[in-house]
Predict the 3D structure of the following.
Amino acid sequence: MEKALAYALEKRERFLADLIELLKIQSVSADPQRDAEVRRSAQWTADFLAKIGMDNAAVLETGGHPAVYADWLHAPGKPTILIYGHHDVQPEDPIDKWTTPPFDPVISDGYIRGRGTSDDKAQYMTHLFALEALLKTNGTLPCNIKVFIEGEEEGGKGMTHDFVRDNAKMLACDAVAISDTSWMSPTRPSIVYALRGIAYFEINVQGPDRDLHSGVYGGMVQNPLNAVGKLIASFQDADGNILVEGLYDDVVKLTAEERAEFASVQEPEDEIAADLKVPQLWGEAGYTAVERNWGRPSFDVHGIWGGFTGEGSKTVIAAEGGFKISFRLVANQEPEKIAKLVAAHVEKHCPPGVTATTTYLHGGTPVMVPADSAFIQAAADAFEQTFGKRPALVREGASIPITAVFQEALHAPAILVGYGLNEDNIHSPDEKFKVDHFYGGIDCNLRLYEAFAKVKV
Ligand code: BES
Ligand code: MN
Ligand code: MN
């Protein structure tokens, strides 16, 4: 352990240089033009795992973007930990909002800056460098380790979920360690025990078979873009309640204990509002911001298109328009069931004179990890030793869809030991990751594996 920590300290510059190499690969899974780049980041990761002495390092074909696997299983009687991360990244647009180039990483003011730093390349690499430090100094690991790094968490065809179900034996483990989440704040290290799920849709509205003059035809037809507005408005009332019939049916109500616990860890609402430069926070009436974010479903419009958006004015009735929406889900909502309810809602609320089609794009089931899992307590010990503070046990409003698949197919708890911060700008221009969290993450992982090794399985 001491030797591995010393090794990690000595190799800091080289670790950073390796990471920068990986960050330069434009592994944008949502962009078919860059499929080869996603494959290149998989290959880079597999090569790295082979180089540090992991066994069976390989790029795996999933039918979608490739994943990476490696293992080291020479600790009989000890737990087996599956380390998960994703080597794909979000698109970089809008490119002109970046201060430094997204795929030419820069180190400045204590941050590594570039697309995929916090989400998730620097985060999963904290594990791979920790494994290197152990293998190069001790030649062994304290517990059995499998590494599984997927290539389509952020987009693509989403075939990796089926791959996990089909290869449950290869991935069998006692716990899954995931570094792909954030802390409550820079001074509040956090371990996440619940993630929300998601159901994502595209809705297309079709009117007349051609664009029309809005004077010649205005008042005679349903304008598809007016219909888009009416449809969007039909999803939520002024108090923030979602109006899709049956959507709340499976929602597990927050208990008084949970609400008290959330209140004890949340950031003050006026501080969040001030940070976001909004006049006030908003959401479902009767719940605090943190309750809404962690324990209630939410509805968001992601994009609206159609008609004339150029300079000046054009009196047109566009033939068609559309929008993208998603619902964040909580236990025990199921995305497939929500998909049926949403399709029925659109059918019922589509204004007369146009047709609307609903496409369910993808979904993820919400995740809840038993907070008393021995692996969570072990992880909390490693965090405390590394960062000097007992971590807060928190929930997360965002989603990592494969986590529910792991829990279901592998029957293993997901331990969400992330090192990101809300200020990291993930999915946005100027994504970054604290250099201190990169090094701290490596040290913490060394302690994490040792703490996991002590868990009786
Ligand atoms: N790593 C994020 C999820 C996340 C973000 C967890 C911040 C904790 C804090 C993950 O890569 C992500 O972006 N998930 C998507 C899933 C979606 C594409 C299905 C999300 O939550 O929008
Ligand atoms: Mn991620
Ligand atoms: Mn992401």
